[in-house]
Specification:
This protein is mainly beta and 325 residues long. Strands 1, 2, 3, 4, 5, 8, 9, 10, 12, 13, 16 and 17 form a 12-stranded mixed sheet that branches. It has a 5-stranded antiparallel sheet with strand order 7-6-11-15-14, with no helix packed on it. The chain is built from 4 helices and 17 strands. The N terminus is likely disordered.
């Protein structure tokens, strides 16, 4: 059964219908006409990168539709101007800049997808006096991910079908200087039996191949393929300028209908002069809806949620792509 499914998925992928989410022969897919406005191989790669399932999903993963509740652990009210009850990152606009770099040999291309994500962090909480307030903090985050395209043909007529996406890096985003007071420094994802799925410190250079396509042998690891219901552990290393314990959240299973986030637990801390290195962990069950998703690690300074100053917003987020089949 699995072998038949793998063969079927490979056939679908080779017709451009899998990861890039191409449509049927309506002028926007891999039929006898190029996608509208596409006249070169480079334009085709940029187009398919822009509609890649993982690229689209990282926007969904980092965004909330409304202010939502979450377990805040044992933060309490220490030196906090507000105590959050609900919060949400409301994205109002996403702009993309996509560039390509053909590698020597003309068989691989690295495509870089840079996004500017703007919106408002909304926090509903209580003040020290017991009043309920809603704080709005405008933000403009930046994110970067890289994809590898492999040449599969040199058809001059159907040029838009000559390259296929075969691997992706993690997506890395967050606040730009000078407000970048927190940084994710490493992520490890493991199965319940201890097998390592992903272990990464440099997200931009950590490529995970789409194993189900069987078109690319490079990369650091396979993109995790998870089974519904299995347990997965995630560890995150965070470097922060704040002496207060940061807020680190796992976002997973995000699509148009499902949205889950959970609080990671700090398991260790050490001081490095003016910065703090903290380790966080969480175990989570894989959801039962299938598709392409991200395990989004969303790290925020405590002041981001507990301070009413709009300038106190400082976040770092990574997204580990995974597939549930």
């Amino acid at each position: 059964m699995r072998k038949s499914l793998a063969v079927l998925m490979l056939m679908v992928a080779l017709t451009g219908l899998l990861v890039v989410g191409c449509k049927k022969d309506d002028g926007n897919g891999p039929g006898d006409q190029a996608p509208a406005g596409i006249s070169t191989e480079e334009q085709a790669m940029k187009y398919y990168a822009s509609i890649d399932e993982f690229v689209l999903n990282d926007e969904k993963t980092i965004a909330d539709q409304d202010v939502e509740t979450m377990d805040y652990g044992t933060f309490g009210k220490i030196d906090a101007t507000i105590t959050p009850i609900r919060w949400g990152r409301i994205v109002t606009n996403v702009t993309k800049n996509i560039s390509t770099s053909v590698q020597p040999g003309d068989t691989l291309t690295i495509t870089t997808v840079e996004k500017t994500v703007t919106g408002n962090l909304k926090i509903k909480g209580t003040t020290a006096g017991g009043d309920t307030v809603t704080i709005t903090k405008p933000f403009s985050d930046k994110s970067t991910r890289k994809m590898i395209f492999k040449r599969v043909d040199r058809d001059q007529r159907r040029f838009w079908m000559n390259w296929m996406p075969v691997a992706s890096s993690l997506v890395e985003g967050g606040t730009l200087p000078p407000n970048d007071r927190i940084k994710i420094a490493g992520v490890v994802m493991l199965r319940a039996n201890g097998d390592t799925l992903v272990s990464v410190k440099d997200p931009a250079s950590y490529y995970m191949r789409y194993r189900w396509l069987r078109l690319f042998q490079g990369g650091k690891s396979d993109t995790p393929e998870l089974i519904p219901g299995e347990s997965v552990k995630l560890r995150a290393t965070v470097v922060s300028a704040s002496p207060d314990t940061d807020v680190v959240v796992l976002r997973h299973g995000f699509d148009a209908f499902h949205r889950r986030r959970a609080h990671l637990t700090m398991v260790s801390e050490r001081t490095n002069g003016s910065t703090f290195t903290r380790e966080y962990e969480i175990s989570w069950p894989v959801h039962f809806h299938r598709g392409f998703f991200h395990a989004g690690i969303d790290a925020m300074t405590k002041a981001t949620l507990f301070d009413d100053n709009p300038d106190s917003y400082s976040v770092s987020w990574w997204g580990v792509p995974y597939r549930v089949f």
